[in-house]
Design goal:
Elements: H1 2-12, H2 20-35, H3 45-54, H4 62-77, H5 84-99, H6 103-120, H7 130-142, H8 146-157, H9 163-182, E1 186-187, E2 190-191
Antiparallel strand pairs: 1-2
Helix pairs in contact: 1-2, 2-4, 3-4, 3-5, 4-5, 5-6, 6-7, 7-8, 8-9
């Protein structure tokens, strides 16, 4: 209910002359939602809340962005390291950071979650983490960091325990090479022209 109040106030703040009292009410609702995270959460609620916060896209003010980040970090702190919940909430935090213009921080958050998952699985990235690899590769591609994406994809591919797992990473590499050619990027194969 607190999130619904926030969404209504956020929408009201977008109408002409809505910045004053509606913006203040919107921030108050977000602060209430932040305090509400101290309670025990039902199974799946942490991920649902994190996704909803990430889906708000770029927020208009520094206060809103800081509160959203605080909420997502609180949600992430409540997850078991290297769990599916950790990956999902870290992904949501990364998405929020990305939409707020903090691209390097977004990559750092999601890469750290993938590393926890990889370490927990004995050195090979588990299959449930592969979805989040797509996000990281997409972000690297958008930033023109093709060589970094290539190195990481190869590092994730090689310890995969099954031929199918390695093949999936090979397909990601092929897609990356095409994107590097289109984006005039550089990989170990050369540069796009």
């Amino acid at each position: 209910l607190t999130f619904a109040t926030y969404l209504v106030r956020a929408r009201a703040s977008l109408v002409p002359n809505g910045k004053g009292e509606h913006r203040a009410a919107m921030i108050a609702a977000l602060r209430t939602a932040t305090a509400d995270l101290d309670r025990a959460l039902a199974p799946g609620e942490r991920i649902a809340m994190a996704r909803m916060l990430a889906d708000l896209d770029a927020l208009p003010g520094d206060d809103e962005r800081a509160l959203r980040r605080q909420m997502l970090e609180t949600l992430r702190a409540g997850t078991a390291p290297a769990s599916l919940e950790d990956l999902a909430v870290s992904h949501a935090l990364g998405q929020a950071l990305w939409s707020d213009g903090a691209q390097d921080a977004a990559l750092d958050v999601l890469l750290a979650a993938l590393q926890r998952s990889e370490r927990d699985a004995g050195g090979a990235l588990p299959e449930q983490a592969h979805t989040y690899v797509e996000t990281v590769v997409s972000w690297w591609t958008q930033r023109g960091r093709f060589a970094e994406a290539e190195r990481r994809l190869i590092a994730w591919r090689d310890p995969q325990p099954t031929p199918l797992g390695r093949e999936r990473f090979d397909q990601r590499l092929d897609n990356l090479y095409i994107a590097a050619l289109d984006g005039r990027g550089t990989t170990s194969l050369g540069s796009g022209k």
